[in-house]
Design goal:
The protein is built from 12 helices and 13 strands. By secondary structure, it is of the alpha/beta class. It is globular and about 55 Å long.
């Protein structure tokens, strides 16, 4: 609602200047600042230095909102110190309209209790926001479905339960296509070698979302103070084989698919993890892929009144 009034006021100001400044379509800076002060949304973002968090912060600031970055090493006026492990020293949510939780601790030999840390912090943030009347948005995953077997999916699903209990919003994005994250690791691996091991003929479903479509959806959900679960992804579920073919086409690379038994790929990834050798994906990613399902998205997109680009359009192929 706040976002709607902001857009309305901007439109009014712009219309006034359009009529009186020889067709130049812009707003006076003083009026624009006043509009920001009255109508801007005040949003805090955990993990604001991360891929999605940083893109969301830039989008919200570009539309005139005030963004508070919650990060491990705060620098600047609008930053706050935030540690996932420390539920006893959460920054105050006073004065905020919304808090978006994108921070996440992946499991590793150094972070063996990552599951408990992630779930505990999501619950603490949701409770804090619920008590203060602040809209809470939790960034989950399509992996958090009922049949999830991966640690990542099970952990996200446990977080969702805490968030929903306190009246927050869960956003489940598809595989995010952008300049970082899992997609970047996949495309970089394909650049290095066009050999792609696949299981079960590469028939696993993959639903994607462009980073710019995702941050727009999150912003819309903040304006609506939406609750429940929203799924933001393409309606079309690409097969894993189709996904790699399209990514390869965008890179000028023709993937060479190598059918491999699941147990063999799992064993190879397990060995890489144990030896500390980086790879595009890990054993937990493989578990999630094996049990992936197609998600219904039309209701969520209609509620936010948005459309998302298909993979072909995102990659310009």
């Amino acid at each position: 609602m706040v976002g709607f009034f902001t857009e309305y006021i901007y439109a009014y100001i712009n219309q006034f200047y359009y009529c009186h400044q020889n067709g130049q379509f812009y707003a006076d800076r003083k009026l624009q600042k006043l509009c920001n002060y009255i109508c801007c949304v005040r949003v805090a973002i955990t993990g604001a230095n991360g891929f999605i968090g940083s893109q969301l912060a830039a989008y919200l600031e570009a539309r005139g909102d005030t963004v508070q970055r919650w990060v491990r090493k705060p620098r600047g006026e609008n930053t706050r110190k935030f540690e996932l492990k420390d539920t006893h020293n959460i920054p105050s949510v006073a004065g905020l309209d919304a808090l978006v939780h994108t921070a996440y601790m992946p499991y590793s030999p150094r972070n063996k209790n990552a599951y408990e840390i992630n779930v505990k912090m999501a619950g603490a943030l949701a409770a804090s926001c619920g008590a203060a009347g602040v809209h809470f948005v939790f960034l989950s995953s399509l992996s958090a479905h009922e049949g999830a077997t991966s640690v990542y999916g099970l952990q996200k699903r446990a977080c969702e339960r805490s968030v929903l209990t306190h009246g927050g919003l869960v956003i489940r994005p598809g595989l995010v296509i952008g300049s970082a994250g899992l997609y970047k690791r996949i495309s970089d691996a394909l650049k290095r070698s066009r050999i792609v091991p696949i299981i079960d003929g590469g028939r696993q479903p993959v639903q994607v979302v462009a980073i710019e479509d995702l941050v727009k959806a999150i912003a819309k959900s903040i304006d609506q103070r939406a609750t429940g679960i929203l799924t933001i992804a393409t309606e079309r579920a690409y097969t894993m084989r189709e996904f790699y073919q399209l990514v390869g086409r965008s890179l000028g690379v023709t993937p060479l698919f190598l059918p491999v038994p699941y147990s063999l790929i799992y064993g190879a990834l397990w060995l890489l993890e144990k030896t500390g050798i980086p790879s595009a994906a890990g054993t937990d990613n493989l578990k999630g892929l094996k049990n992936s399902v197609v998600h219904r998205v039309r209701d969520s997109l209609e509620q936010l009144q948005i459309e998302v680009k298909g993979l072909e359009e995102i990659l310009c192929v």
